[in-house]
Specification:
The chain has 182 residues and is α/β, with parallel strands linked by helices. It has five helices and eight strands. The chain has a single domain, classed as Rossmann fold (3-Layer(aba) Sandwich). The longest helix has 18 residues.
């Protein structure tokens, strides 16, 4: 919060928090076992987590799971153990590919005045794509970490490149993890 005083009177008070959040989509135990480049993907997502947290940007973990499953712990549905979930992080459980569908994600972002989203996760052509389309349809500016999303196919890196081009055509900005700022 920034407060500007003039002659002892508060004339302007603004919130300096960022308008951007990091969405980590479906990086869960059971899905990561199918990702050929899992080690590299997890390293890139950890870089994004550090950058977002250092800048004070909210981190949102999206997890696709049945209602009774916990997003943390050793369940197959839990967020991968190499991605630290912190107390202030937002956890959103979903049952469909689009993380905005029938969840509280939009409300959580609106409450924090978020209008830009950095996205990473799995699976590129399913949940990442569906959530990206949902975000664009709701008016969010979307930035895709072009090297921090993947799929379970053997050609996952070629698939990511193909979908990065498609994401750019439909209105997302695609940037390498190292070039993303919060």
């Amino acid at each position: 919060m920034v407060a500007i005083w003039f002659r002892g009177v508060l004339v302007l008070e603004t919130d300096t928090k960022k308008d951007v959040a990091l969405l980590v989509i479906d990086v869960q135990h059971q899905f990561m076992t199918q990702v050929p480049n899992a080690k590299d993907l997890l390293a890139k997502i950890n870089v994004l987590l550090r950058k977002a947290r250092c800048a004070g940007a909210p981190v949102v973990f999206i997890h696709h799971s049945p209602e009774h499953c916990s997003p943390v712990g050793d369940s197959p549905w839990a967020i991968h153990e190499s991605l630290p979930v912190e107390e202030q992080d937002i956890l959103v459980r979903k049952e469909s590919p689009n993380a905005f569908h029938s969840t509280q994600l939009k409300e959580a972002l609106d409450a924090r005045r978020i209008n830009r989203l950095v996205m990473c996760g799995i699976a590129t052509r399913f949940c990442v794509r569906a959530t990206l389309l949902g975000a664009l349809s709701l008016g969010y500016e979307v930035i895709v970490a072009g090297d921090a999303h993947s799929s379970g196919d053997a050609a996952c890196e070629a698939t990511a490149r193909e979908w990065n081009a498609k994401f750019a055509v439909i209105g997302a900005t695609v940037i390498a993890t190292e070039d993303i700022g919060f």
